[in-house]
């Protein structure tokens, strides 16, 4: 047998004739990617803290809607509010009522207002926790080494972990919007589908706008998760990942308040969060949403690239 055939046989774990060499073990097969993805998702949603956080996210829009309704329409309220017929009350600088005031009379505004609010902290916290558990958490418990012995290539490992974070982001954003919409329908009824511009919207129009909001929020959260995965691949301490991500977002929010740093704002991930308000207006403007999507995709590519580079260079 030639040298090249010997190398090929040793790589495959068999001799050229197809028989196993004496005393050799059969070559390990790659685990199917579908089974790995399903196992990851199942493991994520078996964690009690994941279920607790998702339950909290579903509850917050309900609490927000009830609190705003009691504040604006309770015994202390003397005038109707909102953009509907006969509505009055405080108005914003652009001639539109503030978003939380509009929540009272519009079942459509509550889910988007809740989504915008939770995207500042709670939703990124949820994704950061999932990313921290994905690599740093499993590495600290020795479970990550089992993935590499499966055998699972490190690129496939990153795909599986990224998919898990993506599912968490999608479920979290969907829960917030769904809970907010149902709460708004209960408080304002099906006749309360009004935009911030004062125009009445059909239920179908509301649904496609909410679908866009969920998709946009999922990409934004996945960008946060990609950065968290890059940090998670470099440490064995999950809490360090969560603190680093939330600290970065808080610093970014603070920097956005300084007009002297306008040159820096286009590079900060939270810059386009307020663009979600455009989905509540009529007609919808996609300029800010498109810019935010491109920014989030840049963070996503950079974060996953750093995570892959770290995974492929670290010891198994």
What would you note in describing this structure?
The protein is an all-alpha fold and 316 residues long. Helices cover 62% and strands 0% of the residues. The chain contains eleven helices and no strands. Helix 6 packs antiparallel against helix 10, helix 8 packs antiparallel against helix 9 and helix 9 packs parallel to helix 11. The protein is globular. The two termini are 34 Å apart. The N terminus is likely disordered.
Largest sheet: none
Q: Which structural class best describes the helix and strand composition? A: mainly alpha
Global shape = globular
Q: What is Rg?
A: 25 Å
Q: Helicity level, as a percent range?
A: 55-70%
What is the N-to-C succession of helices and strands? Answer: HHHHHHHHHHH
Say what oligomer this is: single chain
Number of strands: 0
What's the number of helices? 11
- Poorly predicted parts: 1-18, 22-27, 78-95
- The mean pLDDT is 79
Q: Strand-residue fraction?
A: under 5%
Q: For the record, give the distance between the C-alpha atoms at the N and C termini, rounded to a whole number.
A: 34 Å
């Amino acid at each position: 047998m030639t040298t090249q055939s010997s190398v090929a046989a040793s790589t495959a774990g068999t001799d050229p004739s197809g028989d196993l060499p004496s005393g050799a073990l059969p070559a390990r097969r790659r685990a199917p990617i579908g089974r790995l993805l399903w196992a990851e998702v199942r493991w994520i949603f078996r964690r009690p803290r994941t279920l607790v956080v998702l339950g909290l996210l579903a509850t917050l829009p309900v609490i927000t809607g009830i609190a705003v309704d009691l504040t604006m329409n309770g015994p202390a309220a003397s005038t109707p509010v909102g953009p509907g017929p006969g509505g009055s009350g405080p108005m914003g600088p652009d001639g539109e009522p503030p978003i939380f005031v509009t929540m009272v009379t519009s079942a459509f505004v509550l889910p988007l207002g809740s989504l915008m609010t939770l995207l500042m902290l709670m939703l990124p916290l949820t994704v950061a926790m999932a990313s921290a558990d994905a690599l740093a958490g499993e590495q600290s418990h020795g479970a990550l080494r089992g993935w590499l012995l499966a055998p699972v290539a490190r690129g496939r490992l990153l795909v599986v972990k990224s998919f898990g974070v993506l599912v968490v982001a999608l479920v979290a954003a969907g829960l917030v919007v769904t809970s907010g919409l149902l709460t708004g329908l209960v408080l304002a009824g099906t006749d309360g589908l009004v935009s911030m511009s004062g125009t009445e919207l059909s239920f179908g129009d509301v649904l496609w706008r909410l679908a866009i909001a969920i998709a946009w929020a999922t990409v934004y959260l996945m960008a946060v998760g990609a950065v968290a995965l890059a940090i998670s691949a470099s440490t064995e301490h999950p809490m360090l990942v969560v603190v680093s991500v939330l600290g970065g977002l808080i610093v970014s929010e603070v920097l956005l308040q300084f007009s002297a740093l306008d040159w820096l704002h286009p590079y900060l991930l939270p810059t386009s969060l307020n663009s979600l308000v455009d989905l509540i207006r009529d007609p919808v403007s996609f300029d800010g949403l498109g810019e935010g999507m491109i920014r989030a995709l840049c963070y996503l590519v950079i974060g996953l690239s750093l995570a892959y580079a770290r995974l492929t260079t670290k010891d198994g």
